[in-house]
């Protein structure tokens, strides 16, 4: 029998109530979210719209890359596939432009002589146009049709820049044919027919077929500066050989075969005898073992005097 007169039972009841109260408080604490949890939940709610926006932009950029990679070479006759691709490209450009992806700047590198209006027309876009609304491959091909352009590249750089890099053809000579003057490069390609006078210090080649054969002759003349200094033009004859027109009006007739050797002979004669400074009508080097000099006479005779000088061996 308990000696406390019921106090023991009261103590047990009190402890039981305390345990229940503590357990209930613990459950309430467990149910209440921590401050860090609340903060993270708020951040997730704030970031959710931004995340969808980033995903949307990434998606359209990815589509743009696929269009660029899968784009076929342009077909000048046009076909259904190219028309569909152009339609998709326009749709992509319009949607991305609504997101702010427009051309903000166009950077041109390497342009010296290419006319800017022609270049802009070939590029086909301008500031404010959709960044993804055109084909960089087609733009590059249009630019490379310009006579001054040897090769080109067109790049898109996010968020809104177009970069055009040019390698221009270098004028090598002036070609006169049928009364017209144009610039040509080392490959004989016509570079321009405008503002030719700006490059008047370039060598002059004349006649049909001159551009294709000019590089070999002009390079040979560079190795013999005493001859080159007297030459004002190189005339292509029957698309087979060259005549050199000198400053004093003399014509030097070079052979069809081995013209470089004839130029070396001419240089030696100039050093020894100042041949190119003499008042001659022509110097004929077409025969390998002799040179024919035709003097310039004030009165034109029916048969002008001809002096033959055999080559000494």
Automatic annotation (TrEMBL):
Give TM regions. Answer: 50-71
Localization annotation:
Cell inner membrane; Membrane
User: Which InterPro entries does this chain map to?
Assistant: Cell_div_FtsQ/DivIB_C, FtsQ, FtsQ_C_sf, POTRA, POTRA_FtsQ_type
Q: Where is the composition biased (Basic and acidic residues)?
A: 15-33
Q: What membrane topology is annotated for this entry?
A: Single-pass type II membrane protein
Coiled-coil regions, chain positions: none
Taken from the UniProt entry, a GO cellular component term is: plasma membrane
| Record Gene3D superfamilies | Cell division protein FtsQ/DivIB (3.40.50.11690), membrane protein fhac (3.10.20.310)
Q: Where is this region: Disordered?
A: 1-33
Mind listing the UniProt keywords for this protein, alphabetically?
A: Cell cycle, Cell division, Cell inner membrane, Cell membrane, Membrane, Transmembrane, Transmembrane helix
Tell me where it mainly resides: membrane
What Pfam families does this protein map onto? Answer: FtsQ_DivIB_C, POTRA_1
Which GO BP annotation is one of this protein's?
Answer: FtsZ-dependent cytokinesis
Q: Report the superkingdom from the record.
A: Bacteria
Q: Which residues form the POTRA domain?
A: 101-169
What's this chain's function? Essential cell division protein.
Protein's recorded name: Cell division protein FtsQ
């Amino acid at each position: 029998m308990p000696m406390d007169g019921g106090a023991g039972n009261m103590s047990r009841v009190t402890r039981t109530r305390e345990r229940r109260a503590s357990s209930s408080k613990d459950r309430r604490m467990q149910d209440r979210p921590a401050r860090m949890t609340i903060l993270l939940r708020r951040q997730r709610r704030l970031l959710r719209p931004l995340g969808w926006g980033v995903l949307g932009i990434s998606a359209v950029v990815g589509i743009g890359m696929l269009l660029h990679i899968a784009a076929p070479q342009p077909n000048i006759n046009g076909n259904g596939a190219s028309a569909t691709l152009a339609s998709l490209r326009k749709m992509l450009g319009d949607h991305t432009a609504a997101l702010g992806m427009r051309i903000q700047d166009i950077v041109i590198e390497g342009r010296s002589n290419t006319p800017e209006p022609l270049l802009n027309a070939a590029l086909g876009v301008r500031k404010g146009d959709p960044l993804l609304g055109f084909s960089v491959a087609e733009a590059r091909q249009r630019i490379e049709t310009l006579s001054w352009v040897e090769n080109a590249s067109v790049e898109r750089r996010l968020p809104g820049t177009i970069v055009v890099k040019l390698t221009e053809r270098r004028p090598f000579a002036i070609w006169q044919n049928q009364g017209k003057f144009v610039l040509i490069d080392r490959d004989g390609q016509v570079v321009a027919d405008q503002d030719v006078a700006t490059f008047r210090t370039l060598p002059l080649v004349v006649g049909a077929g001159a551009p294709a054969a000019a590089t070999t002759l002009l390079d040979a003349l560079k190795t013999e500066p005493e001859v080159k200094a007297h030459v004002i033009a190189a005339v292509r004859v029957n698309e087979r050989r060259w005549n050199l027109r000198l400053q004093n009006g003399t014509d030097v007739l070079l052979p069809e075969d081995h013209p470089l050797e004839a130029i070396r002979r001419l240089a030696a004669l100039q050093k020894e005898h100042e041949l190119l400074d003499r008042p001659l009508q022509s110097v004929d080097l077409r025969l390998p073992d002799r040179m024919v000099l035709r003097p310039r006479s004030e009165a034109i005779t029916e048969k002008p005097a001809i002096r033959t000088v055999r080559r000494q061996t």
